Structure to design on (1182 residues):
């Protein structure tokens, strides 16, 4: 049975020391996030993750969700009680708008707790997670009345929410969407169509489920310009705002998936269901994408979260399992064999995980902080810079942390040898759960296209120019000896990324296929540069405190990253510069 | 429902054109393998794989095996009939010794059919696969009487076989083995102990199951020097050699695994079971390793096989799924969208798979041919060279093809987007099945240690010296323009491998941890060099036939490999040269 211990100490280091949140104490939300409050929230978040959610993770995988003929869905044993505890603890509203009952704390802090809940039980954490997404969408696009109607109960967790985009013939390409909305004449619409892969689409956790559904109003233009967003509650509210009449929508089936069995992935059938327009007609995608960008950070976080819990368990196994002797002589001479952590190749797998995870955690937190500052800073230049970074880095957080997170989990499983392949040890579940993160909220290939095709060119390439200039300044500033190797690696990686960026600008516009062909490796190189930057920031923070074990270990872990991750940069650059020719050479029929 | 079409055309290219098997027609086994016979066997093998085994793959995953309270095990519906067909078709004995009823054909050909059966149904193919391993062990170590008793029925498939090494506290480190053997006084031994993870350990496919069991004879030395091998049949043979009395051994449970559900992975309890010594006392590991080396080739082949079937299905999906428009303008203007194969990043995932698979197939075949020549050549120098290569390359075939095979399957799954995560499409099963290949028959970390710690130094570094010299000669020979880029890439990759080898010799002996720390990346670099060599050999064969579609496509696929795989070489070299210091820096308790 796998165990989980929340990385509270690491978050204190990041939030207090590296990001120094208290410097923003004059900003809304940050003012309430005093160091004491942050610590208390991290510690309480750790408790619910460790004690309430983690123990349900295996049972969630084993039992999955079950659908009855009437379309109702039962979650695994224990989920309902845990959800109630979670909602009553106020965890759903941690970083939501106080106007609607939230605590208004920084998202940066909310994501820290989010890592803990996702690591403890990813399938469970998706119920509040999707609710958070739907809340964001209503905040971004809903009318005052809609906000007042739905948000307070979603923020307490009394109701949950979902996002309904995908249809059988349309996933990435939402322009093909067919779900119809016909005006009822009373301000509402009749929504008809089938949506698939709706996470948390139907379940027994909450008193109502607020579906946000993309649909095409009768007579709207074809393609993405005719898509509107609707709020479609499972139970239509009565005049007092309480769940009343059952809406004509139903879970038509549950997907049998590789992982996240504890989350109900539903086929949702809308049969003239009553819905209300959110925002303007035909402008639904815009609202959906506001929320999607935040959701993408959350998926990157899941990649990190599952990597963390897999790492913890592989580390414990490696210390416990006795097998063979160290190459340099017995380390456990009185035992029958040495613990396998003495073997360099086992260390390699552990250090690959650890040095990735700690930088990834810093990267998510750093990016989330940009999201907070974009909305909350009182300085226009700060808001602009933060907005630029949030836009630029979100696809990288999503894709790089899930690509590498999956491989990290696979390393963790490998440390277990044959036990990693046996379900009862739990590593299989982590690998199976983690695999979805490369796919949903836009596949990682779509993230790479978003980066190369949109984010790079944004505002006359302002975001990436800022990024390069700030790295150059950091490098120019220098630092103590312990930080110098980090600065050198950062300068080298940044130079490769600059070269790759120039290559893209030069070639990607001449032939769009070159841009597409380079996008994956460009994103990987970008991700590597970001994590090298994060290690540099962490090293700068840790170096003055050398001599204390925590900081010494931090610096040692970072040096492993410099040795064993940074060499991937030139490879990605070489691959991207190979261009599209050999990639596109074969006729589809010849493949 | 996934489909499978055996790569018969590719095997004809490899066996007839690249390897030119008919040049060995004077050798035993090869003389029967005329081009016509080879083609007929490939085509018949394809039929049974496509028509009999592939249709049972999903059901095997869904149903798994079931154990009754009496310890008996039922395989999934259809497996028993399929097994009978498979055995009656003579497929179990294809490359086994004709003296015991086999057809004596080259293993090279046997492995070609092996790819087909493993791709079609990996879990099924393990029943004959393990039987083949047990057959090899008896051939290598058994007495004449044992061979005559067991082999003919194992070669017809009337009986199956297993290998029993692992115990709960001992996997890699067999020196810790505890299963006991006590002489019965009649030439037999009473075997007592528990073995775990015994593939095909109990089932309903065959009339008897011949277990080969490692155990320690009472009073034998501790560690690996006191391990003997025993043949322990499920049913003790009566005087006529027919299954008689039930032996006191039982399947105590089935493991619930991530994949290969159709294969019964058993806890085997031996309770004074009657067994007979195979080979000499305390020399059991030697026999087991003869067979294990061949089994490791077979696992590398599984990595390739699952990658192939995953590729085929992802290719079909990419041609069929309409989503978005090509970056360079619509390719399917009359349809609602273009097939996703027009998108460069989808191509990247497909070409990564295809260019790996074709080289991997060549590599397994090339290495298997060395195995045949080692045993069958009439020339001592050829036997020596072949034996050297077989020893040197086996860990690379096993680890590189399974590491990259798994990632290849993951790419295939990714092409499917969300459908890849849903069980009914079958891609999840391929990923789950493939994951075991990195673990069993010696984890990939153990393969890397075997390479660095044993195979490299063998015979005064003769194998690798030969390898380098032959590559140098090939490069010096030159070739037509179409082949030149291959030769350049091969020369570059070989130079990196040489540099890595020199680094290992220089540093690995001074500090064994350096050798261990470098082993993974060294093996990866070696694997990359081997596949680059294979592409060079294929390009040399294909270039004179340019103009014919098959050969043009081969050359184009290889160029993608040069562009997108070869750049990994310098990265592996840089990582390995980082050494052990940062890897081993942290105390275990600080991780």
């Amino acid at each position: 049975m796998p165990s989980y211990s929340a990385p509270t100490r690491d978050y204190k280091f990041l939030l207090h020391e590296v990001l120094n949140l208290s410097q923003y104490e004059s900003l809304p939300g940050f003012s309430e996030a005093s160091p004491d409050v942050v610590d208390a929230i991290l510690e309480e978040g750790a408790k619910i993750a460790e004690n309430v959610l983690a123990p349900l993770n295996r049972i969630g995988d084993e039992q999955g969700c079950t659908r009855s003929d009437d379309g109702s869905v039962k979650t695994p044993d224990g989920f309902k009680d845990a959800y109630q505890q979670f909602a009553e603890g106020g965890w759903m509203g941690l970083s939501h708008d106080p106007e609607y009952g939230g605590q208004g704390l920084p998202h940066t802090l909310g994501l820290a707790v989010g890592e803990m809940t996702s690591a403890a039980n990813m399938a469970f954490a998706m119920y509040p997670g999707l609710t958070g997404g739907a809340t964001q969408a209503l905040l971004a696009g809903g009318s005052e009345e809609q906000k007042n109607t739905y948000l307070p109960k979603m923020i307490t967790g009394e109701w949950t929410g979902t996002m309904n985009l995908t249809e059988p013939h349309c996933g990435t390409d939402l322009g093909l969407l067919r779900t119809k909305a016909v005006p009822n004449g009373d301000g509402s619409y009749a929504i008809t169509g089938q949506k698939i892969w709706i996470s948390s689409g139907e379940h027994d956790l909450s008193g109502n489920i607020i579906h946000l559904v993309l649909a095409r109003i009768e007579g709207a233009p074809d393609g993405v310009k005719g898509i509107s967003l609707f709020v479609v509650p499972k139970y239509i509210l009565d005049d007092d705002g309480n769940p009343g009449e059952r809406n004509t929508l139903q879970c038509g089936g549950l997907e049998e998936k590789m992982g996240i069995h504890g989350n109900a992935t539903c086929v949702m059938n809308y049969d003239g269901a009553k819905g209300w327009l959110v925002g303007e007609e035909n402008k639904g995608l815009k609202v959906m994408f506001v929320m999607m960008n935040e959701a993408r950070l959350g998926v990157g976080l899941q990649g990190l979260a599952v990597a963390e819990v897999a790492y913890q368990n592989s580390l414990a196994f490696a210390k416990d399992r006795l097998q063979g002797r160290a190459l340099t002589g017995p380390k456990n001479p009185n035992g029958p064999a040495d613990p396998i952590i003495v073997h360099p190749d086992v260390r390699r797998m552990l250090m690959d995980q650890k040095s990735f995870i700690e930088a990834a955690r810093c990267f998510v937190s750093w990016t989330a902080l940009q999201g907070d500052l974009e909305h909350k800073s009182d300085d226009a230049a700060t808001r602009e810079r933060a907005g630029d970074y949030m836009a630029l880095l979100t696809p990288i957080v999503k894709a790089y942390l899930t690509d590498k997170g999956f491989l990290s989990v696979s390393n963790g499983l490998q440390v277990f040898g044959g036990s990693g392949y046996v379900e009862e040890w739990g590593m299989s579940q982590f690998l199976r759960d983690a695999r979805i993160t490369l796919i949903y909220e836009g596949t990682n290939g779509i993230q790479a296209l978003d980066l190369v095709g949109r984010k790079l060119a944004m505002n006359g390439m302002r975001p990436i120019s800022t990024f390069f200039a700030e790295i150059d300044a950091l490098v120019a500033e220098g630092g103590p000896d312990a930080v110098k190797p980090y600065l050198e690696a950062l300068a080298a990686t940044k130079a490769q990324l600059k070269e790759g960026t120039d290559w893209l600008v030069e070639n990607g516009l001449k032939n769009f296929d070159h841009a597409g062909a380079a996008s994956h490796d460009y994103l990987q190189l970008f991700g590597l540069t970001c994590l090298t930057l994060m290690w540099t920031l962490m090293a700068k923070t840790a170096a003055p405190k050398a001599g204390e074990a925590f900081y010494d270990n931090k610096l040692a872990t970072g040096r492993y990253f410099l040795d064993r991750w940074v060499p991937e940069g030139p490879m990605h650059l070489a691959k991207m510069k190979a261009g599209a020719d050999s990639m596109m050479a074969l006729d589809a029929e010849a493949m």
Observations:
- Chain B touches chain A through 96 residues (CB under 8 Å).
- Residues 448-584 of chain B form one domain.
